[in-house]
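To whoever is on call:

I kicked off a structure prediction for a single chain this morning and the downstream step that reads the tokens threw a length-mismatch warning. I double-checked the sequence; it's 287 residues and nothing unusual in it as far as I can see. Pasting both halves so you can look.
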Amino acid sequence: MPTAPLPALLVPSDLIASPSAGLFVAVHSGGASFETRALLAADLPTHDLVSKHSASGLTSGHLLRATGASSFAFGALTVGDPMSGGAAKNILYQGASGVLASSTSLVWDYTNSRLGIGVSSPAYVFHAVGTSGLFITADTDSDNATKQTRLGTRAYVNSQNAFVAFYLAAQLAANALNIGGGTSSGQAATEVWFYTASAVNTSTGTVRAKIDGSGDWTVARDGGRVFIGASTTPTATLDLLASSATRASLRIRAGTAPTSPNDGDIWFDGTDLKLRSGGVTYTLTKT
């Protein structure tokens, strides 16, 4: 079937031909013709696209902002500019230099990489101030369900599980606090150190106790005393006081004699109480 001829009203010059790259297309040029060219102010009488809507000269970090009832322009962020939604939605806006903030005191200090809640200028990586100062995290918020929290740091080798310092589990019959491990989600501690200081505003402090990877406890390290049984001041490195008149202050359970006793060792072999002193083992027996 032959192709129908073009209507007599249209001639080849009326069609859009050979448009140039970057030009706007299909601009009505009067009558029944269109052409391709850059937009001019007169193309839309109520919107000056050339001077008010052009994206020319756009710089990274600029926003398209309304400059009037029907005009827009690009410009850099300034204090008070809403990021989205507007102030009524309490969404972040540009605050002081290097800070994004909201009317609900959520602050992101992107210059120093700090997040603040309830503070206008966070002093730490995460700085929050609120009622009771209670910080809560959990793996679920379902009612009548076990909830867990783990606090740790990234492992020395990035590909390994994190090192978990504290593991908390709120369960039906117990509230468990595990220090140094207790969860398969992270590595356990190989050493646990305890520090104290004699005065406030003291950095680092002094080691008072240590638990190593073998399970050995070192208590009253670098000074201090251990007192068990009362709240009065201890008078010896290890000071024991019976908690009641029905129990002794110290009990050494029956066991076998050490293979290589050292001076100061005390043990009960099931029959006699023995003490090692000066390379000699002394036996306390009933007479």
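Update from on-call: the warning came from a stale cache, not from the record. Cleared it. Sanity check on the structure: The two ends are 134 Å apart (CA to CA).
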